[in-house]
Write a structure and sequence with these properties.
- It is a single chain.
- It is built from 7 helices and no strands.
- By secondary structure, it is an all-alpha fold.
- The two termini are about 35 Å apart.
């Protein structure tokens, strides 16, 4: 998936190559231009990754500072970062049974995106349940998804 962070990184690489190449040309003509472009690309790659790294660090700090009740609410509201929220709740030793219910709730959603993220979370955090639901397709009609989730919740695995 291509994001704003990816765009920033690639623009930084291109800008680094341009600036490094021009600086190298002034210092040592053609060989310097090629070497400067390579050095500029490497520096651009590193600098272009900083916004992502800093944002991720800030989000992790925000999640670690929130109480468990707030995190469970964010799990419902901010499903697009639910994997990170589940990681934080797991780190705190939260009861997985209640979290499994939240994941199943995502998988019953009207939104295909929310169902897809819910199924990814199920595969990552509850792999035995995911194996039992190998026929689940988040892009299937909503009612089919809800029936499959209800079936697995009612099974003896609960």
């Amino acid at each position: 998936m291509f994001t704003l962070f990816g765009l920033i990184r690639w623009v930084s690489v291109a800008a680094g190559a341009l600036v490094g190449g021009l600086a190298g040309l002034r210092l040592a003509v053609v060989g310097g231009g090629a070497g400067g472009a390579l050095a500029g690309m490497a520096l651009g790659w590193w600098l272009g990754g900083l916004p992502y790294t800093l944002s991720l660090r800030a989000l992790r700090k925000d999640l670690s500072g929130a109480d468990s009740v707030a995190l469970k609410q964010r799990l419902v509201d901010e499903y697009y970062i639910s994997g990170m929220i589940l990681d934080e709740l797991n780190r705190r030793g939260e009861a997985w049974a209640s979290l499994e219910g939240e994941v199943f709730q995502m998988m019953r959603s009207d939104s295909v995106l929310r169902r897809s993220i819910g199924f990814q979370n199920l595969q990552r955090f509850f792999p035995e349940r995911a194996r039992a639901m190998s026929d689940y397709d988040p892009s299937a009609p909503t009612e089919d998804c809800r029936q499959r989730v209800a079936k697995i919740q009612a099974s003896s695995l609960c």
